Amino acid sequence: MDKLDWQEWLIGIVGVWLIASPFLLPYTPAEGASALIPGGTAFIMAGALTLALLLLGWLELAAWQLGAGIILAIVLIISPWLFGFASVGTSVFNAVVSGVVLGLAVLGEWVLPNDDQRISHH
Fold first, then answer.
1. Where would a tag sit more exposed on the chain, N or C end, judged by fewer CB atoms within 10 A?
2. Mean pLDDT of the chain
C-alpha cells in the first residue's frame, strides 16, 4: 500500500471518533448512573471493530471486509433502538451520522477502489 485513499481516511476517522465520542459528547448522567453517554460501550466496540477492519484491509482488502463494514454501518444506524438508548438525542445523532458516514466510505471503497485494485474476490 502506497497511500491511503479518502475512503480509508474517512473509515479511520469514524473509528477513532466512535472510540472517543463517549468521552467527548456532552452528557449529564442521572445520579448513580455511568458517566459514559448511553450507548458509549457500543460506540467503543464499533470503533474498535471499524479500526480492525481498516487494518485488515491494509494487508489485503477482501470483499468480506467491505460487507462487514456495511453490516457494521447498518448496526450503528439502528443501535439506538437495538440497544435501548433511542431516548438520548445525542447518542442517536452520533450513531446515525457515524453509521451513514461509515457506510458511505465503505461503499466508496467498494464502488471506487483505488488504482491498485486491491479487492480480492476469493
1. C
2. 81
